[in-house]
Design a protein that fits this description.
42% helix; AB_hydrolase_1; hydrolase activity; globular; Rossmann fold; AB_hydrolase_fold; 8-stranded mixed β-sheet; alpha/beta; 17% strand; hydrolase; Alpha/beta hydrolase
Length: 278
Amino acid sequence: MSYVTTSDGVEIFYKDWGPKDAQPVVFHHGWPLSADDWDAQMLFFLRNGYRVVAHDRRGHGRSAQVSDGHDMDHYAADAFAVVEHLDLRDAIHIGHSTGGGEVARYVAKHGEPAGRVARAVLVSAVPPLMLKTDANPEGLPLEVFDGFRQATAANRAQFFLDVASGPFYGFNREGATVHQGVIQNWWRQGMMGSAKAHYEGIKAFSETDQTEDLKAISVPTLVLHGEDDQIVPIHDSAMKSIKLLRNATLKTYPGFSHGMLTVNADVLNADLLAFAKG
């Protein structure tokens, strides 16, 4: 397996498929998953002639289960370590959920300053800020995320099963087609990771204000969001992000869930490819 060691000594697992001289597409996964969550997109872009790269965030998947650094700054720096190690240039960075926050921080702090990013995509992404504050009164109250922490600490295995079986993919909606394999794969990915990384990652994805990250991004950016997202409400994220980004396009999907990349991969992949081609 392929690993890169970060400046603070953390081993980050990554996949690197396809022609080394092709334009790279780099995928950033959501909480509490792994690079495997991008299987449908990686195979699709590979068939379309791209080089595809995805890594497991520290504490997630096959990366080292370290004690510290479970915050957006380290997430972005770890992604940059992979990019530098592989010498990726003119890359398209695509992030889902927490991975969307990682992409925003990466592009603003590393990708654009280093001249290594061509485009960015935020899918069902957490920026600019999920938490309800005086400055963000439409956000979700702290008690919601305290509930996530309590459930993760008390019985992570059951909590992950409940999330995947219900709101994540919209399987709790009347008339939904439930895919047991998708549920089991979500659970499998989650349970590969570290409970500490998952517990502390809740603060990272809910309390990190990324307003300035979004304002700093100048590369073409695509914002995609499902209108029935029960995990990251569209009005708290995409609708605000599009107003902060300088060079962005918003596309929303009626009835689509937070996990639309998996259960609606045919639709999302076509839109991602169209944007990648510019």
